[in-house]
Amino acid sequence: MNAFALMFLVAGLGLIGWLTARSRAARFDRGGAKRLHSLPAQHGFFVAMWVVLPALLFVAAWGAISPALVKQTVLEHPAASQLPQFDFERDALLAEASRVAEQPGVAAFDPVAQQLVAPTRAAKVRYDWIGTAGAILLAFAGGAYAFTRIRASFPARSSVERGMMLMLLVASLIAILTTVGIFLSLLWESVRFFGQVSITDFLFGTHWSPQVIDPARPGRSLGAVPLFWGTFFIGAVIAMIVAIPFGLMSAIYLTQYAAPQVRRWMKPILEILAGVPTVVYGYFAALTVAPAVRDLAVAFGYPYASSESALAAGLVMGVMIIPFVSSMADDSIAAVPTAMRDGSLAMGATKSETISRVLIPAALPGVVAGILLAVSRAIGETMIVVMAASGAANITLNPFESATTVTKQIVDLLTGESEFDSPKTLAAFALGLTLFVITLLLNIVALRVVKRYREAYE
Amino acid sequence: MTDAPHKMTARDVSVFYGEKQAVKNVSIDIDMDRVTAFIGPSGCGKSTFLRTLNRMNDTIGNARVEGQITLDGEDIYSSGMDVVQLRARVGMVFQKPNPFPKSIFENVAYGPRIHGLANSKADLEEIVARSLRRAGLWEEVKDRLNDSGTALSGGQQQRLCIARAIAVDPEVILMDEPASALDPIATAKIEELIHELRGRYAIVIVTHNMQQAARVSQRTAFFHLGNLVEYGDTDNIFTAPREERTKDYITGRYG
Amino acid sequence: MNNARATQSTQAQERAPTDWKTVAMQRRIRKRYRAERRFRFFGIAAVVLSAAFLAFLLVTMVAQGWRGFTRTEIMLPIDFPASGMMVERAQLDTAGADLALAGAGLENAVKSAAAAAFGPGGESYISDNAWVSVRKAIKHDASVLDRKTQMRVPASSEVDQAMAGRGTSEILAAVAKLKNAGLVSRHLNLDFLKVSDSTDPVAVGIWGALKGSLLTMFVTFLIAFPVGVLSAIYLEEYAPRNRWTDLIEVSINNLAAVPSIIFGLLGLAVFLGSWSLFGYRVGPLLPRSAALVGGLTLALMIMPVIVIASRNAIKAVPPSIRDAALGIGASPIQVVFHHVLPLAMPGILTGTIIGMARALGETAPLLLIGMRAFIVTPPGGLTDPATVLPVQIFLWSDEVSRGFVEKTSAAIIVLLVFLLAMNGLAIYLRNKFETRW
Fold first, then answer.
1. CATH assignment of C207-433?
2. What is the value of ipTM here, to two decimals?
């Protein structure tokens, strides 16, 4: 039985448990007490909880370990002795057998795999039955245990609420698990990468050409400095040159000058810019902006301009970031007390003098934090550079030339056809780790600045 | 009472917030050498009226002012009136001290800088020092002019705001409950300061503390529900009010 | 006294009152107003240019994309009795009709009809799938098989491009001739929404990708919404202030800003990588390229968005309501589920829709977990290989054939319509249920 059907079955059993327990609780002898501690429905939830939770936990755990058990059983089959000893090839054949076993009427390409189809299928069926039976048994056992406990004086509500609390806690721990999961998985693959490539070659090498890797010294063509430079140049320089003035000035105009009517319309319109998917920006950058930038460069007398220039990707990325900078600036300016603005206006300062000499300096920490977050978003942005930037790793200051970024290389490295353990694939994880650490640092600094700034005005 | 022309006059001034009328047909004169106090229960329109005198109501989206207000005979709501100049001439001190998050020196120097009042750095320093002296703050801060203005105590902050207003060399100073956020000692200092500033500037102070009005002002205006109920010499208002409502208010029957 | 003396001492160096009427002062004020107007102009310019960019982007997409919803059709004269096709009439009313017509050589009959009508090479004027629409017509009315008739069939990509003025001079001339004869024309074609990917730009559609997107969003919602809301409740209502809680908060705030591609790496390593568990190598936990993996990955990505929005919504419910409920003896759990949560729900839903919109437009993490396959048949379930709309856009944008440009833009229009609808719904919810306490 597949996992979904099993979950439905368990849920159905839970419903039955809920109904029976509720009707039983409704008939309790109140024994003189005016009220029961818990309502009948709460007794029902208590039983349903005991039916569903242990069974579901078992299904989840079984789902994780049964493939390993199936594999173990198949390997004990006599035909398995013909399997190649080498891990990678053996796993490929086993995977093929497993795939065929689930699709009746299809034959495996490899004869050894074909021999293993029947045993695989048998093992799968057997472990499936064990899993199903185990889940149903646990559901009944849990239900029975809970059912014996409910009586008029039983505080079912407290037990159910303790269970709910536990659920809430587990839900909030998923955030930590995800963070730890990201960090560990990136770290794990990166450690394997740095087992093959020296860390200094990677961090300080200036030559990046993963297409041609010398197996003897893979680090020679995996120096990531050009990537770091390209990422910085496109995301933190070109994009910010667009996003900071535009974002800041629109926030200032919309909060300080615009009539409420204008503000009510323009603010959501600018927010749409942030809601446009990055793949659309990427397509636009590649199809419309990049050729225009190239023509512009040629018109300026620079005939060697790349049609995948850093400028095109950076410009479009900057536009994408405008609403982000704008809303951060909006928030920080709004957090400056009105009294300060009034104080300046009351002395005869013009609006622009008030804004540039009082409001912006007062809001500066918030604005700076917003810019840090914007940079972190820009350097992590993927689709625009994948579609509009080049794959050629140059270190250049010329915005009309091509530059590549960390995110673009991650996608290129992982979408090609290559085995999982090669330095080329693992390099993507090392790049990912670098990106993760840098954005994390930027965020921590920014959030701390924002927090301190908020406190200053509270 | 002198025959000299009034520094500011208001004739039939009404203020609306959208549909709601907050000030109703108020007429009042403000003279140079006096402190004028506006008293009345909260929500009576006295602060709103005060803000019309240097057009700070312009900063509130839906506020509308009718009637005529003049400064030295010039209509301040006429199209020819320059708001920036007006506010430099009619300064304002707010209820809550609102120093800029800059140094003490920069707080006071801000006004002279934007209006271009100082010819040189030495001149600017002199204006700052004089303003701080006049606000009675000089002795306390002269050694730490570069400290942040927000690091001062509440009373000091308020005197800093007064110094900031003085530095632009205004003719009228509007004070919107300047001592309501302060402790009694700081309040006494502010009141003493108002005494000293009197004569150099026309001062208008809004307060809901009647003793304070009696102590610092020569003229008192009593506002109620947007109306100017009674306006006259402070002594008369407090000892022999003409209107029943004024009497009720100052004897503490409501408000 | 001290103050008084200080005032006295400055009296001597009193300066003249500021004269605002001097020429210098007036000039200065005029300059300040010019600066004011300049500043204001920059502000307007920033807003207008940003909005103009958005308008330009949308106009470009619509201008290129509207052709994607149409197709060029060509009038094909076809003489069935002369084609030599042998069709069992009886089978045409049965389920075997498709097979019977294909077996009777309909495809070749249609091609030769095209060659006969448009001269040598004429079969390249009609789409490879043209015979499918002929088949449809026959199934609709079998009597056409007895006569010479004319039928509108989809034209090939070359003819289609030539209609837009692109192509070699031969094809342009040929198409111009057909056009003058009134044999070729463009028509609205909603097959684009009903069929899936193909190698032929005139035959592609987005249904497969759209269905993949819907399946992925289903998984994302199923995971991210309950987990996000429950953890928001825990953090806002019950969590004790301690280091663990701080750690959870820091994790959530930082996850919200982690680049999306990192989640792709996580999905690749955790869901699709091989693990070593108690000495066994556990193969990929989940099938590659499937909506299930995509949905899980995106759920982890948007969960922080939902948590943060839900916390703000819960925080906005005034404490007086909690006190009132606690005061009549409700348990803390009842307070939250009976009172706080219903009141916070509009805010929570708004945040969830915004998060889902973000997931719907996301591309990069899905590329890494292999949802970039060439999907001709729409996925039937959560574990089938699938692709999603944004990835489909990415894949088509890489195609060299000019016909894909308009199809890419058309797919973008569909994606934007979905996103605008979701964001519009979120704004509507926010405005309708916004409560000031």
1. 1.10.3720.10
2. 0.86
